[in-house]
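Troubleshooting: if your tokenizer reports a length mismatch, compare your output against this known-good record of 207 residues.
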Amino acid sequence: MKFIGAGARPGRPQVDHDAVFTIPNLLTVVRFMGVPLFIWLVLAQREYGAGVVVLAVMAGTDWIDGYVARRFDQASRLGRVLDPIADRLAMIAVAVTLVIAGVVHWLYLAALVVPDAVLLAMTLFFFRGHPDLPVSVVGKVRTGLLLLGTPLLVLSRLDTGVSDQLFAAAWVVLGLGLVGHWIAAYNYFWAILRKGREHKRHDGGTA
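Known-good structure output:
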């Protein structure tokens, strides 16, 4: 089974519906709810093992909601907006939590936040809202790597006997994820710029 675009039916283009109460959107809400739970487990309880379980569930819902949406024709306009927001919120909130807990250096957080901050500023300038751009393959791979590397890093805090190996593996995966993060940001930068300029020209021509 392929992981990227899983559930898509050949010859049937994906249609974004107006539905709100769908299984994929419910799973996205679950991912949102996992963020404060992870923060509480790590910062208040120091329960790194339970935190890893929460991260695994969040990563699982990220894949499952896309599969269900494509397989059962439950893609929605709301989900198209909420899904990437949930991904960004999860990655940044988890990174902030791990910085506070002393698991990662603040430079890791900066490497995540700076590209997203630039893209957010461009989006607000050109569109005053969501730019409605398709998610790139690089972006999907980036998200998968970061969602895989983070629980490995948290696991390395546990006394498992292989903590050093988990720590090294985590940073290999996270390093690749950060490279993908910047490549995806570069691609989105130019996509937003091109679409934004067209949007401005269209508005100027119809004003």
